[in-house]
Amino acid sequence: MITENSGKIYRFKLDHDLGFGFAEVYDFTDHSMFDGRLVYVYDKIDKINEKKYGITEIRSSKIALGPIRLYKFPASRGLHSWKFLFKTDELLITEFPETKEFHGSKINSNDYDWSKLNTWYKSDRDPRKWLAYVDYEEIRHLETRIINSPSGVAKEFSMKVLLDTNEKVSDYYDLSDLGNKNLFTYLINTYYPLKSTRKYLRQIPKV
Questions:
Q1: What are the backbone dihedrals phi and psi of residue 157, each rounded to the nearest 5 degrees, phi first?
Q2: Closest C-alpha among 26, 24, 30 to residue 44
Q3: Which of 23, 157, 158, 207 has its CA 20 to 30 A from that of 15?
Q4: Extended strands (E) in the chain
């Protein structure tokens, strides 16, 4: 881990005037240039645009999303920029985190319920042994190595905020759009139990 680039805390704008979210970024590009940029999103929303924050105030909230892989670190200027708040040396992680992996060419965009796919495995498996598949519920909470943009992270957290406040994501995002549909599918199959996932899947329009 590159410590000088890790533990950086940002504030970012949510979609649909939902407020501002908070994230913490980690740099493991010394471990992997492909997916070594990681971000955690806190379960914290603020409506105030200009305010000073402390580590205790932000860390008192649980983690809502992550560690999500980024294809680039957040920009501090321009469209979809994030505001850098401060850096902390009290790091959440020091080791490259475990992920869930799907054995196959890719997850089809019509495979909405990931629990029905039976070739999932953990990234920390012993490479000297045969690949052992696990029940999806065992690894549901883990992130994948799918690469995201900072704006995609803001959209995913916006979707989660809507779900957690009993709003329909389909009233705010076009879920017939492939990008929105894939992000929504990823969110509910990772951060919600199976019963809730199947309920939320009804928001995706039938083809």
A1: -70, -35
A2: 24
A3: 207
A4: 8-13, 20-27, 37-42, 63-70, 83-87, 100-102, 120-122, 147-148
Amino acid at 163: L
Longest dimension (CA), the chain: 54
d(CA 4, CA 23): 17
Using alpha carbons, list the distances in angstroms from residue 74 to 32, 122, 145: 18, 28, 18
Strand partners, 87: 8
Kindly give the confidence (pLDDT) of every residue in the chain, 207 residues in length, as a single tens digit, with 9 standing for 90 and above: 999 999 999 999 999 999 999 999 999 999 888 899 999 999 999 998 777 899 999 999 999 999 999 999 999 887 889 999 999 999 999 999 999 999 876 666 567 999 999 899 998 876 677 888 999 999 999 999 999 999 999 999 999 999 999 999 999 999 999 999 999 999 999 999 999 999 999 999 987
pTM beyond cutoff 0.85:
yes
Count how many residues are written for the chain: 207
Domain boundaries, the chain: 3-87, 100-142+168-203
Beta-carbon contacts of 85 under 8 Å, excluding residues fewer than 6 positions away, are: 9, 10, 11, 22, 53
